[in-house]
Amino acid sequence: MSILPLLKESRSYMENQALYNHFLKFFSELENRIAGKVLSQLLEHSNVFVETSTTQGNFLKPNELCNALQISLSQFYKMKKTYKNFPVCNVGGAKRYKLSEVEQFIKNLKT
Question: Which domain of life is it from (predicted)?
């Protein structure tokens, strides 16, 4: 009995297993990305349907927050980088900010 066929079969099994693991990882990452995009789109469109304005209770994108605070995007990112405890919420994988929390954070910095 030759060992060569067993080695070929073992190698083929390992290659198939590695390929299976790569596909599993790929599709898992793809699934997470799609879920994040869907949640983000649902959140964005739900705000349109409800016709919410950017008030203190809503989650804002960085540019919306900057408009409300009347600061530039670069000032916002510098502040966020400087203060690691800057208030942020993850909504469907996207970072959003509550105006009331950020205003309170800035007030606390001044005192």
Answer: Bacteria
Q: Are both 68 and 83 inside the same structural domain?
A: yes
Contact yes or no for 66/48 (Cβ under 8 A): no
Q: What are 34-61's pLDDT values in tens digits?
A: 888 887 777 776 655 444 444 445 889 9
Q: What are the DSSP calls for 55-107, one per residue?
A: -TTSEE-HHHHHHHHT--HHHHHHHHHH-TT---EEETTEEEEEHHHHHHHHH
Do residues 3 and 21 both lie within one domain? yes
What are 13-31's pLDDT values in tens digits? 888 888 888 888 998 888 8
The reply to whether 3 and 32 lie within a common domain is yes
Residues of the domain holding 34: 1-52
